[in-house]
Amino acid sequence: MKMIGLAIGLLCCNWAGGLAWAQNSVAQGIAEYRAMLQDGNPADLFEARGEGLWTQSRGPKKATLERCDLGRGPGVVKGVFVELPRYFPDTQRVQDLESRLLTCMETLQGFSAAEIANTPFGKGEQNNLTALTTWIAAESKGLKFNLSQVHAQEKAMYAVGKRLFFNRSGPHDFACATCHSADGKRIRLQDLPNLMKNPGASDGFGSWPAYRVSNGQMWSMQLRLNDCFRQQRFPAPLFGSDATIALGVYLGVNALGGESIAPAIKR
Questions:
Q1: Containing domain of residue 204, as a range?
Q2: Closest by alpha carbon to 196, among 176, 180, 185?
Q3: How many folded domains does the chain comprise?
Q4: Are residues 14 and 112 in the same domain?
Q5: Between vectors from CA 263 to CA 70 and to CA 155, what angle results, nearest 5°?
Q6: Active site residues
């Protein structure tokens, strides 16, 4: 019996070791796959398009976005991505990059922010919004996240985002934390970053916008969060809702000091 127990123990150890080796091998393979694709990341096309849209006279007012204030003054783009979401005095609310661009597109160019927000992802001005966010994100690539927590509303949004992150609900009793609150988790072949600390927080939050190879689409953070709600079997949040912005604040603050790698490429 002792020999049988020893044999079973050895088999279990070998199986566990083999499984760990296989998982590491798969993870390494996926990393190499992404590295190869990065050289020809289709996000570059969205980035170039976004840069052109920034200086193009558009909308009912036939104006550019060059006077848009994203947090560092009118027209300043470099460095803003790693400081958003943040509080804006003119709107008296905390905004992420996409909702702030909507404000500029409405006030400067005359577009209807509500109409754009209700447009499906990848269609019309939503597609242009994704291109703009891709270019602006690229202008901060390699910079370190440093979200403000000075204003009372910024602190409140962090608290709300944290509560939403851990809130378990829906038919499967899921929360964001179900998948993203511990190290070493994986779903199928996809590693799940721990979004509560670095490097997971900066690698996760700081890689969107990203090009999705599996469906040939460019995904913004708003779309990424929208799909997370869908996978939790929640109703889709409204575009630019306080819920998605609060989650962005929580994740962005957790990413403090980590480098932005957006626009990235995903499977």
A1: 41-266
A2: 180
A3: 2
A4: no
A5: 45
A6: 228
